[in-house]
Amino acid sequence: MLKIEGLKKGYDGNEILKGISLDVNKGDVISIIGPSGSGKTTLLRNITTLEQADGGHIQFAGVDNDFQKLNSKDIQTIRRNVGFVFQNYNLFNNKTALQNITEGLIVARKVKKREAEKIALEALERVGLSDRRNHYPSQLSGGQQQRVGIARAVALNPQVIFFDEPTSALDPELVGEVLKVMRNLADEGTTMVVVTHQMNFARNVSNKVIFMADGYIVEQGSPEDIFEHPSEKRTQEFLTDILANV
């Protein structure tokens, strides 16, 4: 469904992504793990065209082109078929939960307001926040704000939803409510690519785990492959360190 080959990205001569290739199939829940600075967030932002990659090829939603040759129509097509859940929510502070969701539908998708509100309410129901539809972000907890962010992505009915460390800005007691929503989406067959430090989610919800370090995919496989039988020394060291601190 989504195929990335040889994706490269650098900043000021510093190469961040060093030729990443990735296949995402319908219904996949892929967790990307690895140390800070390994290029995980950059990878998501380049796949979704929030940033322009320096090299590589993408096949997705009828687009089959080099990243550097994507035209405005290609970029629009890619963006229309992905959802993105940001680490820091990225909600409009002057809009209610409902309005945060309808904004993209009305402006980007040209959906009529009444239909957009219907879709938004259904999305809020899915994340357990229909009773907070008229609340502004300042009236919501961090976990609730992130659930609105997930509802916003879901409402667009994308082929793939990308999550960039969706729980890292949350207080520990709020993490569970967001992970529960994500687990429910996975159970419903939603295709998801998740950058995460939540090893239990990666282990128990994903069907594929990717370990990145230093701009490369070091190792990938099933959760059992990665967590029980990692073959690369770098993967073994990372898991030993991070699981020792759980």
Automatic annotation (TrEMBL):
Give the domain of life. Answer: Bacteria
**Where, if anywhere, are coiled coils annotated?**
none
Keyword NAD tagged: no
Keywords (A to Z) from UniProt: ATP-binding, Cell membrane, Membrane, Nucleotide-binding, Transport
The way this protein sits in the membrane is described as: Peripheral membrane protein
Q: Output the Gene Ontology cellular-component terms.
A: plasma membrane
The ABC transporter domain extends over 2-239
The protein's matches in PANTHER family, at most eight in alphabetical order, are given as:
AMINO ACID IMPORT ATP-BINDING PROTEIN (PTHR43166), L-CYSTINE IMPORT ATP-BINDING PROTEIN TCYN (PTHR43166:SF35)
Know the name of this protein? Phosphate ABC transporter ATP-binding protein
Origin species, per record, is Sporolactobacillus laevolacticus DSM 442
